[in-house]
Amino acid sequence: MVRIAPSLLSCDFAHLADEIVRVETAADLLHLDVMDGRFVPNITMGPVIVEAVRKATDLPLDVHMMIVEPDRYLSDFRQAGADMISIHVEACPHVQRTIDQIHQLGALAGAAVNPATPVEQLVDILGELDYVLVMSVNPGFGGQTFWPRALDKIVRLVDMRGQRQRPLIEVDGGINQETGESARKAGADILVAGSYVFGADDPVKRIQNLRGL
Q1: Counting C-beta atoms within 10 Å of the first and last residue's C-beta, which end of the chain has fewer, N or C?
Q2: How far apart are CA 99 and CA 20, in angstroms?
Q3: Catalytic residue numbers, as ranges
Q4: Domains along the chain?
Q5: How buried is 207 (Cβ within 10 angstroms: 0-12 exposed, 13-18 middle, 19+ buried)?
Q6: Whole-angstrom distance, CA of residue 206 vs CA of residue 179
Q7: ω into 118 cis (within 30 of 0)
Q8: Can you list the positions of beta strands (E) in the chain?
Q9: 152-173: per-residue pLDDT in tens?
Q10: How confident is the model over 36-55, as pLDDT tens digits?
Q11: Which among 145, 140, 127, 46 is positioned nearest to 90, based on CA atoms?
């Protein structure tokens, strides 16, 4: 069954704890987008926010690092409560070493790829990854439209993975009922959904809709 990760980027930060309560009974994990204003044109949360979220829930925290020099901050985010940490291959010149560092910290390690980055770039380290995060939008902002060619990347990842259970395939960007169904059919294991969930009057029903695809 597909797992659902509500993205806190789309929640009301003035009521962060309440927003988590709205979704945690239905969600499988929480997705936190870390942006530095350099790798992407936006600035969001740091370890302090991750720590606050950790105190508010027992759900696994999936930290997506959209930053340059991610190695400098891995320990900070792990100590703040990150259970899963993904770094961008476009921002990380020594991806295998960084993945190894994440594992040494005791977290699950993921590699994220932008729309223009072929997933074949991961072929030599695929067996060392716990998950691959396929961006179905160009990262930096919430509420964008799903990029249909991401589906082909998911299919290729499934083929690259073969009979192995790992890495899991996570998809982030423009996920709603329609695009979520397409991503699941292509082979996605985890759907990240932001505005589709937190923009609804009943976010739990939206999560249940995605899980029931």
Answers
A1: N
A2: 28
A3: 33, 172
A4: 3-211 (3.20.20.70)
A5: buried
A6: 13
A7: no
A8: 3-6, 30-35, 61-66, 84-88, 108-113, 131-135, 168-172, 190-193
A9: 999 999 999 998 889 999 999 9
A10: 988 888 888 899 999 999 99
A11: 140
